[in-house]
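User: Fold this one for me? It's Helix-turn-helix domain-containing protein.
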Amino acid sequence: MVNRKELDPEKSPSARFGQRLRMLRDERGWTQDDLAERMGYSGTHISAVETGRRPPTPHFANSADRAFGTGDTFERQGRAARNSALLEGFPEFVAQEVRATEIRLFEVGIIPGLLQTPEYAGAIAAGAVRRGAITEQQAEERLTLLAKRQASLERTPAPRIYAVLDEGCLRRTVGGPDVMTAQLDRLADFADLPSTVFQVAPFDLGERRSFDLPVTLLTLPDWSHIAYSESAQQGQLERDMRFVQPLLTAYHQLQAEAASQSASVALIQQLRKGTP
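Assistant: Here's what I get for Helix-turn-helix domain-containing protein.
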């Protein structure tokens, strides 16, 4: 089949659900529209669930079990997908991130995942477990996916990465002094790479800071752009350039206002030595 997207069932519970849905559909020789008719959905909806772009609702999972005669198999898989620690929309974003030729990051309060050391990431996940926000299994899911995302940056050619971090990201201690020292060293190493630009948005930027919330902007191989942002409950992937273009403009304005890379690295060194 032309342009058929490969599925990775190890990526997330939603991906495993989608892979099983496609496998059983293929075994029966059904098209997506054939399955949609049996389940009471559209072919577009079936495609979105198979590729992980839309999570399976309880009604969808039950309808799939009835269509395939699989008892409660899809109902149980759907429950696991909904209990994932990954926000809705995030797996789709990751699928685009690993293709991006340019990645622009802005973060508030925490080092972005792509730049985290394993110890820093582990401390963040452990804190969420202690608060009861996620389970230990969900924490492991997050850390496994993060390691895969970081490994993908080593592809050839490497993506160009622009990172602007609010000053609070550097000053907020996570995991204790040793973990934070190693994390600051990691940022300094990142800034030294030939394919990166690193800047800090200082506190005194005040109202001139373009964003109040984290945002990631991706440039894809065909030069199209995608924006990704998160609320507490959901990730949002935006492709419409009517909405993405203003974010790109705001990001360029932020880079112009933020500290230079040399000044940003100097701040890292000051914090690394324990000076204010």
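One thing worth pointing out: The longest strand covers residues 160-166.
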